[in-house]
Write a structure and sequence with these properties.
Structural class: mainly alpha
Distance between the termini: 54 Å
Number of helices: 10
Number of strands: 0
Largest sheet: none
Helix content: 55-70%
Order of helices and strands: HHHHHHHHHH
Radius of gyration: 24 Å
Shape: elongated
Length: 167
């Protein structure tokens, strides 16, 4: 019979299996270790950052090595995880200074003025998106659609990956 396990930890699962198979065992209280150490924290923090911002692990680790993340442990492990994500976001922006809109525009060979003329999106708005002074993720779908059609891409290809507020 197939069973689904949800909401129990590994010790509870082992105890259940041993009990149901009539296997003798010395039962012990589950131990929870609060401080898992730098490596554990670094893996957890990296996974959180990847989930929160949508970068792949490879994209992140090409910019910030696992050793660098582990080295952040003494400073960040007791802080709110958003402090770590903000630090990582600054590092990623340094490595990827151009927005996705600008990269796509340059690949397609458009100047900002040409993109504005062909898409119908005001030049100043394009400039603000590319300077990250205006959040393209919060613009009207109509604007994204016009830009994406002109640049022959999907709307989501122009959106920035960060969910952090620009401050």
């Amino acid at each position: 019979m197939t069973r689904y396990v949800a909401g129990i930890n590994g010790c509870e699962l082992a105890r259940k299996v041993l009990t149901e198979t009539n296997t003798p065992f010395a039962d012990a209280e589950d131990a929870m270790y609060i401080d898992k150490g730098p490596e554990y924290w670094a893996g957890w923090a990296l996974a959180f950052y990847q989930w929160y911002n949508g970068y792949s692990f490879m994209e992140i680790l090409n910019i910030v090595s696992m050793e660098e993340i582990i080295a952040m442990y003494p400073v960040f492990h007791e802080m709110d995880i958003l402090q770590f994500t903000e630090k990582m976001q600054r590092k990623m922006k340094e490595a990827y200074p151009r927005t996705r809109l600008r990269l796509r525009r340059e690949i397609c060979g458009f100047s900002q003025s040409e993109l504005a003329a062909d898409s119908g999106v005001p030049l100043r708005q394009i400039q603000l998106f590319e300077q990250r002074q205006r959040d393209i993720n919060k613009t009207a779908a109509e604007t994204l659609l016009s830009l994406s059609r002109t640049l022959c891409c999907r709307m989501e290809d122009l959106m920035e990956r960060s969910f952090l507020s620009e401050g």
